[in-house]
Target: N-acetylglucosamine kinase-like BadF-type ATPase
Amino acid sequence: MSERPTSTAEQVRGVLAIDGGNSKTDVALVALDGTVLGAARGDGFEPHRDGPDRAIEKLAPLVEAVAEQAGLRPDRLLTTRLSACMANVDLPVEEQRLHAAVAARPWAVSASVGNDTFGLLRAGTDSPRGVAVVCGAGINCVGLLPDGRTARFPALGKLTGDWGGGGGMAAEAMWHAARAEDGRGQPTALSAAIGRHFGLAGANAVAEAIHLGRLPRRRLHEIVRLLFATAQEGDATALRLIDRQADEITRLAVVALRRLRLLDEPTPVVLGGGVLAAKQPLLIDNLTARLAAAAPLAEPRIVVAPPVLGAALLGLDHLEADRTAYDTLRAAYPTTEQDDAAALSTE
Model:
């Protein structure tokens, strides 16, 4: 068991866990006994826009905040292991660049940097074996075997064949709503719903407001809630979009299971991200039915705990922590139910 710091000169034996998401970033300092010594939240993590060095620089205030909470000096070595699971880190070269940027910081003795989907997988399992699909702002999937073999996807959006996630679903809803308005597409209640939500005439008025800078583009994710609400009222277009998302999530999971030869074995399939954590029945029931047909032995489970939990667990794995540490850490991040609207608004 690690000792709590008694002065600002001490180093905590434990983990600096980082979850860099599209819409928010969480940092936690966790002692080797699983105690959370400090936690902080900031804006989204965008190394593809900021570059690796600038992206890591933006994490510094969060690290300083957790160090202060733990009674440590942020300009000195903080802890034993840094474990970072980050969105927009989809290629090996991106992992290498961010690892170099992290290693240059006086934060930990050693560090690991990986895609945030690995954190989701670890949060939903007790062993390094299974498949995880994250459907948040974007969509991604990984599979992992105990010997280290993985199944991964580039996850670079439409360029690499991806469809959906909160951002993709919102864009598709806008596309269909705009075309319905001007007569190019089939009628849908999405246009009126989008207009009412933003206090404008319809989807095209919303698009114009975004284009002219009167409405922040980041608010497009709010359309995901409208999509589900419109589908619940029976709108055919909205229902088709949700059906397609369920199909896409299933395809990712089945391909990963097949690549790792796990289709014939009971295997956890961990589902997470804001869209899935909201547990909307129209999506979850569709998805689980598809998964049961395509991979009968798959064991779907939805994780609603903050993704930083997975990063911290991976760090404890590296340090070979006592089993009680895992129980202590998980108790700090209970997997309680989320409000549907709240989950969907933080993809």
Summary: Residues 1-9, 336-343 have pLDDT under 50 and may be disordered.
